[in-house]
Amino acid sequence: MSNGQDFSHVDALAFLNLKGELKSKLLSAHAAVKKNLPFVARIAIALYDPQTKILKTYLHSSGVDNPLEHYQTLIDNAPSLKEILEKGKPRVVNNMLTFEDSDKKHIRRLGRQGYAASYTMPMFNNGDFFGFLFFNSYEKEVFTEKTLEELDLHGHLISLMLINELSTVQTLSAAIKTTSHMTHHRDPETGSHLDRMSRYSRLIAEVLADKYALDDDYIEQIFMFSPLHDIGKIAIPDYILLKGGKLTDDEMDIMRTHSQKGKEIIDELLGNFGMENMAHANVLRNIAAYHHETINGTGYPEGRSGQDIPLEARIVAVADIFDALTSERPYKKAWSNDDAFEALMQMSGEKLDQDCVDALLSHREEVEAIQRQFKESLFG
Ligand code: C2E
Ligand code: SIN
Ligand code: SIN
Ligand code: SIN
Ligand code: FE
Ligand code: FE
After folding, report:
1. Nearest Cα residue to 119 out of 215, 12, 44, 25
2. Are 137 and 118 in contact (CB under 8 A)?
3. Which among 76, 102, 112 is the best mutation to test ligand 3's pocket, defined by most ligand atoms within 8 Å of the CB?
4. Ligand 2 mean position to 340 CA, how many Å?
5. What are the DSSP E strand ranges found in the chain?
């Protein structure tokens, strides 16, 4: 202090300097908002997909009792949100009772949770609408003009944080798409295998979401990254990869290197894009590396067992095996769903995670809907 310097001020937004997951940054942003605006009880983000016109819950800062997780709707079915989008302006509701009569599921749920006021900002990236940011309060009449001036600054910072994260993910997923197209030029596994298994994976994650406190962002990652589980097959020679019959033991040993190879390829891909440390990297890496580990520790490449196998890999293992069994392969016929379910039951607790198997088996209708939607065709 002698030379007039003072380092005692604590920067309330210092979390923005740090490397970290979006979820933890949102929690920090919420803490920063609460410093001056303690009545803001929840910040939530819903993302919009312009192609499908679907609005989806994405991240939130509330506790486990979040009223609106894993929810999606067509924007046309949310007229008051659509109005915000069309006006391109944020909306203040200072007394949620205004909405009490609504028959819309998400409004009733928010109501039940006891929120009394909300401030909803549409988010834009270079003029393109990409989602909504919600600030909720249990108290009425809190979103005054003075309050909103400060909230707007926070809102735009959060929006920039999101744009940054989403564009990284988009770059990664473009890189991945190219890479996986290259793989599937050689892999006898078809595109519809990947369509189905990624949806079985998402279904399992959705069913387990409450029990394991999984958020929407994680579930979306499972869906996005599960088609890459076999990316390591790029490294397997054709005479093995494309063999019509049973593999010999030696050939199988080579085949089994595909999961370790997959991990290396993903690490290289992430390294080349400067994304080794992004939050999503681990989910992707774990799926490629560990989808052939088994609960009893007899799998490969590391012989991990039980909970040491990351959840995303345990989920993908069930989805992959179920679809491998019910599909025709150059080396095998397609099994019936009954036989495949029976086989999964046999493996449950031994090779496959019991919760993951139960999740799939208890949703047979959804499984069969996925099969009807993504039938094998001449074009894969
Ligand atoms: P994949 O075809 O995607 O099969 C994934 C996993 O599904 C297999 O992992 C295995 O756990 C299960 N699976 C597939 N078909 C059967 C089956 O007929 N019976 C049983 N009980 N389980 C089945 P796994 O065994 O580690 O094999 C990894 C990959 O190695 C397979 O991926 C496939 O590409 C290749 N592969 C395995 N066995 C053979 C084979 O006999 N001939 C050929 N050409 N490829 C094979
Ligand atoms: C969420 O709760 O996951 C975010 C979106 C919302 O509440 O509408
Ligand atoms: C709607 O579904 O129309 C409105 C949802 C909201 O305002 O939170
Ligand atoms: C499919 O793999 O396309 C359908 C399998 C089945 O219906 O059993
Ligand atoms: Fe595999
Ligand atoms: Fe597979």
Report:
1. 44
2. yes
3. 102
4. 37
5. 40-49, 54-60, 72-74, 91-93, 117-125, 128-137
Domain boundary among 165, 194, 228: 165
Residues, the chain: 380
pTM of the model: 0.74
Same domain for 258 and 334, yes or no, is yes
- Residue 380: the pLDDT is 42
Angstrom distance (rounded) from CA 229 to CA 189: 12
Tens-place pLDDT, residues 114-159? 688 999 999 999 999 999 999 999 899 999 999 999 999 999 999 9
Instruction: Say which CATH number the domain at 230 has.
Output: 1.10.3210.10
How many domains in the chain? 2
CATH of the domain at 135: 3.30.450.40
What is the extent of the structural domain holding 204? 184-373
The residues placing their C-beta within 5 Å of ligand 6, an ion, are 230, 320
